[in-house]
Write a structure and sequence with these properties.
By secondary structure, the protein is an alpha+beta fold. The protein has a 6-stranded mixed β-sheet with strand order 8-15-14-12-9-10, with helices on both faces. The protein has a 5-stranded mixed β-sheet with strand order 4-5-6-1-13, covered by helices on one side. The radius of gyration is 21 Å and the shape is globular. The chain folds into 2 domains: 154 residues, Chloramphenicol acetyltransferase-like domain (Chloramphenicol Acetyltransferase), CATH 3.30.559.10; 248 residues, Nonribosomal peptide synthetase, condensation domain (Chloramphenicol Acetyltransferase), CATH 3.30.559.30. It has 10 helices and 15 strands. GO terms for molecular function: acyltransferase activity. It holds the Pfam family PapA_C.
């Protein structure tokens, strides 16, 4: 396996795609649907094991049934902590089904896949739709749809090489942002609690208005999302006179290759970019967001981002292990992965799908029994933005201890206020 496939092994980074809805999910049909999905995409039935010079992917000729966890939950939410990740030494994919009793019964169905095997684009556009399609067939006919095993996935490195993409020495915005990130002293006491996953969802009306405000000023939705995050971080950190904000961006590169790469041709077909902006009392968040996106567009045009993932294992290592001279401190970084619009999934028999959420989960320092390991990334804030059903949402983790409702958390309030300010600016 290549570096891009093994880079996420250390903390079991897992992509979790969660479908929310109402109705009673038939667990046996779901298990059979998952087995049919694994038969069609054999990589899902594999695992990683040590080999000479690294790791290799092992796919048994007769794999054991897929792991489908069924639990009662109120409210029905995606798994968290250790339950949200898959250990690639054991499995590359699992399903979690949370069922909430009531009238109607609610569910949250999550497909959890090791990030080094499939990226979010493949999960949202291929794997989840096919899982739902197989589930529907089994409920209606008693049998899954007949499938042909697909070829094993090739690595990102292989796909890029075949298209003539080679690593360059040009410093991308991503690497520049890492190098420019200011060091924040860790003055607060480390919480013994693992980071908490939260989500802020805007209404369809708010989403449409944010889009319209950006369009009226010549900014894309990505720029508007970036503006909201930058302004929120400025408020969240007390609005210092100047706040240097290194913004790291994750970009799907499948459609930016020649020829484009289908959703299941490569493993982790992502590029990384970034920019460093400075927020002040007089800066315009939309202008700052536009600066970040403008650099992304330029580096995509020049092919810098397309080859950036070839440097990713090294850069992730530098991010996880800051230089010793930094002492007990962490770098301040803001990461944004804008998935874009996820098209509505069809309703399986007896179910109504209402929402979708995508997150990146991994083992926290607390899961290793060493909370101090979290110091290096304590001031890293990563946001996954997507639009489903006409509603924009931001999923992220917070490190505040306690059990306050999501809407009362300081970072959630800051994000909401930032969006309100941008909407209000259109009325001034």
């Amino acid at each position: 396996m290549t570096p891009s496939e093994t880079a996420y092994r250390g903390n079991c980074t897992t992509m979790v795609g969660s479908v929310y809805g109402t109705g009673k999910v038939e667990a046996d049909a779901l298990r059979r649907a998952f087995d049919a999905l694994r038969a069609e995409h054999p990589t899902l039935a594999g695992f990683m094991e040590p080999a000479v010079g690294g790791y290799e992917l092992v796919v048994p000729s007769h794999p054991a049934p897929g792991v489908v966890r069924v639990r009662e939950a109120s409210p029905a939410q995606p798994p968290s902590g250790r339950e949200a990740v898959v250990d690639p030494a054991v499995e590359l994919a699992a399903i979690d089904l949370a069922a909430e009793a009531g009238e109607p019964e609610r569910f949250c169905l999550s497909l959890c896949v090791y990030h080094g095997a499939y990226d979010g684009h493949a999960i949202t556009t291929v794997l989840i739709p096919r899982l739902l399609e197989q589930y529907s067939a089994i409920v209606l006919t008693g049998e899954p749809i007949a499938v042909e095993p697909q070829p094993m996935l090739e690595s990102c490195e292989t796909v890029l090489t075949r298209r003539g993409v080679r690593p360059t020495n040009e410093v991308s915005g991503f690497e520049e942002a890492l190098r420019s990130a200011p060091v924040f002293p860790v003055t607060e006491v480390q919480s013994d609690e693992r980071p908490r996953q939260v989500r802020l969802t805007f209404s369809a009306e708010e989403t449409a208005r944010l889009r319209a405000v950006g369009k009226a000023r010549g900014f894309s939705v990505s720029a508007v999302v970036t503006a909201v995050v930058i302004d929120a971080m400025h408020e969240f950190l007390g609005r210092p006179e100047e706040l240097v904000v290194p913004v790291l961006s994750v970009v799907a590169i499948r459609d930016r290759l020649d020829p484009p790469a289908p959703a299941t041709e490569g493993t982790v077909m992502l590029g990384t970019g970034g920019a460093v902006v400075t927020a002040t009392a007089t800066s315009d968040p939309l202008e700052l967001g536009g600066q970040v996106v403008d650099r992304l567009v330029r580096e995509l045009r020049d092919g810098v981002i397309q080859q950036s993932c070839l440097h990713l294992p090294r850069l992730l290592g530098e991010l996880a292990a800051p230089p010793p001279e930094a002492g007990p401190a962490s770098k301040f970084l803001v990461g944004i992965s804008n998935v874009g619009v996820v098209f509505d999934y069809p309703n399986p028999p007896g179910l109504v799908i209402e929402d979708f959420q995508g997150v990146s989960a991994n083992l926290a320092a607390q899961d290793f029994g060493r909370p101090e390991l979290g110091v290096a990334t304590k001031h890293n804030y990563w946001f996954m933005a997507l639009t489903y059903g006409g509603r924009l949402s931001l999923a992220f983790k917070v490190r505040e201890a306690g059990s306050a409702p999501d809407h009362e958390l300081p970072l959630v309030r800051a994000l909401r206020s930032a969006a309100d300010r941008i909407l209000g600016s259109a009325e001034d």
